[in-house]
Amino acid sequence: MPAQSPAAPATASGNPFAGSRFYVDPDSEAVAAVARLRNSAPADAAALSRIANTSHADWFGGDTANPDAVRTRVAGRVNEIRAAGALPVLVAYAIPNRDCGSYSAGGAGSPDSYRAWIAAFAAGIGRGPAAVILEPDAIAQTDCLSAADRQTRYSLLSNAVDVLARAGVAVYLDAGNATWHSAADTAARLRAAGVDRARGFALNVSNFDETADERAYAAAVSAALGGTAHAVIDTSRNGLGPAPGNVWCNPPGRALGAAPTSNVGDPIVDAYLWIKVPGESDGTCNGGPGAGQWWLDYALGLAARAAG
């Protein structure tokens, strides 16, 4: 891709979700589970339909040593979604030292490898509307890094914002959640990662905080950034709020939250999204399989306890 000047801040371009269609994956694990259970356990199938019939983001975090592969996979998915007349909502999840070595550890093996990966990721998106949630937990978890690695991470995130913005993507840097860092602290971290050139930030990704609390936090963070940054909130599993003690890894007793929508009546919040795929495990905790693996029992619980 030829060198280009940095894009103008995406905050000026308007809410990318307004008037856009949310894509429902016809080949998801939830759809397959509904088909398997329809005859043998119709009540379970009906509950799971709440997941199967709802849009969720697509996560990309592999192929860090093979940029051609990630470009091909992203392009295939994006083309499928656009062919359906919907807006691609993707998660980039390959930052070096990902998840501080915890359940979702991994990511690119070096800064150069990540730069190549994010360039390939953006190339796969091509030209056209899309939204990207950039690197869940990467900003909130910088405390686990050395001072040098922390600066490298901010540099990589800032470069990723520019690469994606040049492709016309609405970028939302992940900013943790309302219970993690103060609004002023989060705003400073976002500033270091280039949020001024992004659409804004994402909150509550893979977490369970109450939507009202996250909306208030979004307003505080945006105000600390000068009021121009917008937010999206993950409502995939917060229908009953956080678990006792704010347990975040496969906590029991949780429920699906509000379905994805841009009609939230909030000047700061662009949309509620299901960024975490409901039914995919947080990791090998509380009886779950590996991070990102489908867990039918947990999905059933989320769906059965959902309102409506």
Automatic annotation (TrEMBL):
It is an enzyme of class 3 (hydrolase). Signal peptide: none annotated. PROSITE patterns: GLYCOSYL_HYDROL_F6_1, GLYCOSYL_HYDROL_F6_2. The active site is at residues 99, 137. Its EC number is 3.2.1.-. Pfam families: Glyco_hydro_6. InterPro entries: Beta_cellobiohydrolase, Beta_cellobiohydrolase_sf, Glyco_hydro_6_CS. The keyword Disulfide bond applies. The keyword Hydrolase applies. Keywords: Carbohydrate metabolism, Cellulose degradation, Disulfide bond, Glycosidase, Hydrolase, Polysaccharide degradation, Signal. Belongs to the glycosyl hydrolase family 6. This is Glucanase. It comes from Protofrankia coriariae.
